[in-house]
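DM from R.C. (forwarded with permission)

"hey, sorry to bug you on a friday — could you get me a structure for this? deadline for the figure draft is monday and I only need the backbone to look sensible"
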Amino acid sequence: MQQTKTTYTNKELVTLLQGLHAVQNLQGLKFALRVSKNIKILRDELEDLEKAATPNPEFVELSRKVGELEQKKDMDAISKLEKDNKKLVDARKKQLAELEEVMKDTTEVSLVSIYENTLPKDITAAQLTGIQTLIK
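My reply, with the result:
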């Protein structure tokens, strides 16, 4: 399969991976092979980024508690919980700010081209938009 090396930002790679996931259940053997290959390439490329974006278990638990309080519309309890866990909240904010900067970084990736004649007949315009950079 022909691969094309192109420079992308990490944000563009994440968006492209989402576009590929949106079309991965469409019919067509050649199309499916190319989509599957690109998903694998992008997952491998973005693995470290995904790890860097993962919140620590303590923050996940805090987020779960905040979600429960939001359902009860208990804004005072949410404020208290966030205040009591300020270091944890600030660490997550810092992690997200750093991640935002990393998303701007560029990298060269070789991806498999998807040819127009392999596109499924039932693909939508929205789905095409998500994978447009791969279509030849």
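R.C.: lifesaver. The helical segments are 10-23, 29-53, 57-71, 75-84, 86-102, 125-131.
me: no worries. Residues 29-53 form the longest helix (25 residues).
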